């Protein structure tokens, strides 16, 4: 498999994605079969927690929720920072909330779990020994991150205030979409969907995972006990499908146009 290595992430760049679940072994089995991930434990400060790897390189993290915590499962992106404590202060002063941290994860680094003013949850990661996702551009790796929210105009100001992004909105009366950039490099997007925002989820960050064949991967999701919420379809960036794992964590699988070949 060809892999594209990633160095230390620029502050504000999505650098890691993590999932907290109720049944860790079953979840490992699902994603291992879907994406070809292997798993290693740790850091131990996060409790039952494993890192997913491709060719020995870190891709994502999966942890187990404490017994009795009946929380919805969701993939959470982490944005890189050089100082988790200072960025957490900027989150609160800009109208967001901090739920967890800063919390030291041993020698790996420090993390914060926060939410923007619309309630969308995201993380902050101050890297030490663990840089975050170290391979992209191949099947089984995060391909893109998009905030699905009611409207983007006020929320984009929050992310610009905290992370200093440049913003590139689509000028359209019926399409509310903004791309976040660091320098001239797109790193994430905001999609305002108005009343189409799911009532059971509210505003949320969506993680896109690269696959070799979207239709085949969607069938595999179903075979493994997951669900296809929106059938494969061709979009601007490639062929994609909205799916959920057996515990209900929603994500998008995509065959990005021009993605690396095995």
UniProtKB/TrEMBL annotation:
Domain VOC: 13-127, 141-256
A Pfam family of this chain: Glyoxalase_6
Highest taxon, organism lineage: Bacteria
Protein name: VOC domain-containing protein
InterPro entries referenced in this protein's UniProt entry, alphabetically: Anthracycline_SecMetBiosynth (IPR052164), Glyas_Bleomycin-R_OHBP_Dase (IPR029068), Glyas_Fos-R_dOase_dom (IPR004360), Glyoxalase_6 (IPR041581), VOC_core (IPR037523)
Xref: CDD domains: SgaA_N_like
Organism: Streptomyces candidus
């Amino acid at each position: 498999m060809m892999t594209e290595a990633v160095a230390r992430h620029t502050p504000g760049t999505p650098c890691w994605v993590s999932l907290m679940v109720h049944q860790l072994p079953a979840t490992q089995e699902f994603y291992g079969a879907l994406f070809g991930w292997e798993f290693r434990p740790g850091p131990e400060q996060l409790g039952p927690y494993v890192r997913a790897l491709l060719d020995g390189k870190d891709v994502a993290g999966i942890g187990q929720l404490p017994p009795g915590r009946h929380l919805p499962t969701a993939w959470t992106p982490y944005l890189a920072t050089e100082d988790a404590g200072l960025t957490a202060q900027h989150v609160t002063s800009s109208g967001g909330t901090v739920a967890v941290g800063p919390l030291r994860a041993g020698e790996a680094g420090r993390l914060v779990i926060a939410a923007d003013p619309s309630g969308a949850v995201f993380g902050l990661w101050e890297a030490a020994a663990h840089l975050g996702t170290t391979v992209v551009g191949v099947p089984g790796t995060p391909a893109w991150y998009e905030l699905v929210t009611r409207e983007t105009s006020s929320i984009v100001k929050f992310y610009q205030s905290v992370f200093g992004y440049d913003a590139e909105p689509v000028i359209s009366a019926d399409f509310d979409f903004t791309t976040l950039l660091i320098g001239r490099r797109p790193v994430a997007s905001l999609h305002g969907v108005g009343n189409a925002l799911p009532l059971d989820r509210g505003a949320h960050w969506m993680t896109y995972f690269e696959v070799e064949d979207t239709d085949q991967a969607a069938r595999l999701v179903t075979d493994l006990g997951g669900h296809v919420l929106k059938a494969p379809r061709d979009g601007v960036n490639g062929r994609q499908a909205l799916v959920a794992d057996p515990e209900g964590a929603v994500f998008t699988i995509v065959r990005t146009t021009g993605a690396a070949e095995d």
